[in-house]
Amino acid sequence: MTKSAIICGGGISGLTAGIYLGRMGWDVTVCEKDAELRTAGAGLNLWPNGIRVLEKIGLRPALEKTGVFLDQYRTFSSEGELIAVEDVKGWRETYGAPLYGVHRRHLSKMLSDALGRHNLRLGHEVASVQQDDAGAVCTFGNGETIRGDVVLGADGVASAVRNSLFGPQEFSADERVRWRGLFNVADVHADPKTEVEVWGTDGHFGYLPMGGGKAYWFAAADGVTQNVEEVTGFFGGWHGSAVPAIIAATNTSTIIRNGLRDFVRPLKNWSKGRVTLAGDAAHPVLPGMAQGANQALEDVDVLCQCLGSYDGVESALAAYESVRIAQVAPVVKGSRALFDFEGQNEVAKGNKNPLFDRYHRLAERRVI
Ligand SMILES: Cc1cc2nc3c(=O)[nH]c(=O)nc-3n(C[C@H](O)[C@H](O)[C@H](O)COP(=O)(O)OP(=O)(O)OC[C@H]3O[C@@H](n4cnc5c(N)ncnc54)[C@H](O)[C@@H]3O)c2cc1C
């Protein structure tokens, strides 16, 4: 008999899980609270561990059309000194896929096209989840209920499914702020296949192309937390580097602020019976290692492999969480450390980008 999954949340993890399970022959319904899929946001940096999952479910041609596979990652000091060059094009041989830049909106559209409109219910905000021996039932704010063999909470940081399973969680009190903005590659003569990071003593800045001549930057700095003028003033002063020109080429209406928190204590379990979590719902993570979406994709890969190889849903979910909780923990920790500028000391001492030692360790382990 065909198995069915109700997936709450039409973000990266929810849409990918829908495509993956659909290709395994499951009957899939992805329920998104908003009336349309995410259109806001800037770009996204996907790494080989995430790209491998998307390519595994047949999305390589779509990825090629939607964003850009990068060739190099260059690291500079805020005075413009070249600190490190990483050949990321060679990562297809080393790690099975290269580094990728994409506009979030375009990624969302690519994933929803692959899922198919008939599997997606917009305007469906999950309010609670119940379960019995035969299945699990999602109740939505519009009063509708949908039953399935398994329910996946892929509903992001403020997950209603997680609340339904485990109650409210304690988030870190110290909000971290990250800024992002958009610019045209040609306006600053940037290489359309190179990602760049620039480290200063009390902040860092990075940018990457996302295809179609567009690029986005991300930035964080001590005390630069409130308004756009602080950002343009602070980074506009990094003379000697490419940063002031990028700031000048940015239409300030595209600059967005995100206040970010992770959990004080990670969840001990992600699943109860037939209901489980993936992505930010299970493990909010600061973007210090640019791994949130990539870890979400790894979650989906392991979850679907477990659902495909265990007879019972409950044993599959137990196996999934036992693999992934251990794998995600160091990434959440490492992302906070890098966000807190501990990396700055490593840049100064080691003349290298601190991200890469961490990434090489992470990428060398394969998911199950
Ligand atoms: C500033 C910033 C930069 C980042 N940069 C990167 C990066 O470069 N690389 C990277 O890998 N990660 C990055 N991340 C992290 C990444 O964006 C997240 O980890 C990723 O989006 C998580 O995907 P998700 O599907 O789990 O959750 P989300 O993308 O948050 O999707 C959740 C979806 O669920 C929906 N939803 C919420 N509640 C309900 C409900 N009750 N019922 C139904 N639907 C609901 C939401 O509307 C949303 O569509 C960044 C994050 C931030 C904030």
From TrEMBL:
Pfam families: FAD_binding_3
Entry-linked InterPro entries: FAD-bd, FAD-dep_Monooxygenase_BioMet, FAD/NAD-bd_sf
UniProt keyword list: Monooxygenase, Oxidoreductase
GO molecular function: FAD binding; monooxygenase activity
Gene3D superfamilies to which the protein is assigned, alphabetical: FAD/NAD(P)-binding domain (3.50.50.60)
Domain annotation FAD-binding: ranges: 5-333
Ubl conjugation recorded as keyword: no
Name of the protein in its database record: FAD-dependent monooxygenase
